[in-house]
């Protein structure tokens, strides 16, 4: 009899408070909606994951493999290991290009966010702020080549800027397109073209902040800087962190605005003083000025990828904050 009772207890269905045999408690606690979502995860995410692997992961692996060889794009590849990376570290032109990329990343990035936050303070209380926001965002819709062409037209020795300076009494206006001044000009154009984009994103974050926070700050006599420090920055910190990551990725890929100044050298290439790592990578592989060096180009691209990865990890750690609910 006792054996029969034990057998009946083994096959008896589990009660409402007990998980079925062979299933974890966590699985049994999932709602039907959660289980249905998990079933849809694979068919919905798998196509995007496959595209990502094919279009991004596979090329990155191929570039890493090519960077360990000497290859002109045809014929057999010669294994050289890490020698391409050692050559890059000793290459003055690559180091200069890499330094220019870092200057654009930090100096232009700092200028963009300072101006963007200042514009955020001004636009928030300005009548017609939606129209102003659209005007600021418009330059982001224009290709960088257009800005390069306009800069060449406006800053040439007899262009609009020097003509205006002569009209107000400056007899010897600067040579804006001289090699020593080109990098600063490129950085100024990049800041001007990008500030509206990041201002728009930050303004979208500011628009989420309830109005009574600003009313309390006004009653407390807070200045514009204090409103930025104690209200806007803490409540839009996650938006600022996303903008910082976006600019980091964008700055390492700066190419068109630099390439447009190639006509100033007379050989179709931009002056070496303003090369970025992206321009260096392209010239090593596709310039047509010499035998292609896909190994060096791939090694340069992998170092740029490493720079982006390290900076993003550091940014995420530095900008990590507890989310504020409001």
Q: Secondary-structure blueprint of this entry?
A:
Blueprint: H1 2-11, H2 25-29, H3 32-66, E1 69-70, E2 78-79, H4 83-90, H5 92-124, H6 129-137, H7 144-155, H8 160-167, H9 179-207, H10 211-219, H11 224-235, H12 237-252, H13 256-259, H14 277-286, H15 294-318
Antiparallel strand pairs: 1-2
Helix pairs in contact: 3-15, 4-15, 5-9, 5-12, 5-14, 6-9, 7-9, 12-15, 14-15
Overview of this protein structure:
69% of the residues lie in helices and 1% in strands. The chain has helices at 2-11, 25-29, 32-66, 83-90, 92-124, 129-137, 144-155, 160-167, 179-207, 211-219, 224-235, 237-252, 256-259, 277-286, 294-318, and strands at 69-70, 78-79. Strand 1 (69-70) and strand 2 form a beta hairpin. A two-stranded antiparallel sheet has the order 1-2. The model is unreliable at 1-23 (pLDDT under 50). With 326 residues, it is mainly α.
What's the SSE pattern? HHHEEHHHHHHHHHHHH
Query: In total, how many beta strands?
Result: 2
Give the amount of beta strand, in percent: under 5%
Largest sheet: 2 strands, antiparallel
Helix % is 55-70%
Query: Which stretches are poorly predicted, pLDDT < 50 over at least 5 residues?
Result: 1-23
Structural class: mainly alpha
């Amino acid at each position: 009899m006792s054996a029969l009772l034990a057998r009946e207890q083994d096959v008896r269905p589990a009660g409402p408070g007990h998980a079925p045999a062979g299933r974890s408690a966590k699985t049994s606690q999932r709602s039907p909606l959660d289980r249905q979502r998990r079933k849809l995860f694979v068919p919905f995410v798998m196509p995007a994951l496959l595209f990502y692997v094919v279009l991004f992961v596979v090329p990155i692996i191929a570039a890493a493999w090519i960077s360990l060889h000497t290859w002109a794009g045809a014929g057999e590849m010669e294994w050289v290991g890490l020698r391409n990376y050692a050559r890059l570290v000793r290459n003055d032109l690559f180091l200069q290009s890499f330094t220019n990329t870092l200057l654009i990343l930090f100096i232009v990035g700092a200028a963009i966010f300072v101006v963007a936050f200042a514009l955020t303070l001004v636009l928030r209380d300005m009548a017609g702020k939606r129209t102003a926001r659209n005007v600021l965002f418009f330059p982001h819709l224009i290709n960088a080549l257009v800005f390069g062409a306009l800069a060449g037209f406006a800053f040439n020795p007899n262009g609009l800027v020097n003509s205006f300076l002569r009209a107000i009494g400056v007899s010897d206006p600067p040579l804006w397109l001289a090699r020593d001044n080109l990098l600063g000009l490129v950085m100024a154009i990049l800041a001007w073209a990008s500030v509206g984009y990041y201002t728009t994103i930050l303004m979208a974050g500011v628009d989420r902040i309830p109005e009574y926070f600003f009313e309390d700050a006004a009653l407390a006599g807070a200045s514009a800087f204090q409103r930025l420090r104690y209200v806007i920055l803490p409540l839009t910190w996650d938006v600022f962190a996303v903008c910082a990551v976006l600019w980091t990725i964008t700055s390492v890929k700066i190419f068109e605005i630099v390439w447009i100044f190639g006509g100033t050298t007379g050989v179709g290439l931009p002056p070496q003083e303003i090369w970025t790592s992206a321009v260096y990578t392209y010239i090593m592989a596709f310039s047509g000025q010499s035998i292609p060096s896909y190994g060096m180009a791939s090694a340069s691209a992998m170092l740029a990828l490493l720079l982006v990865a390290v900076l993003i990890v550091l940014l995420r750690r530095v900008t990590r904050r507890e989310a504020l609910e409001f």
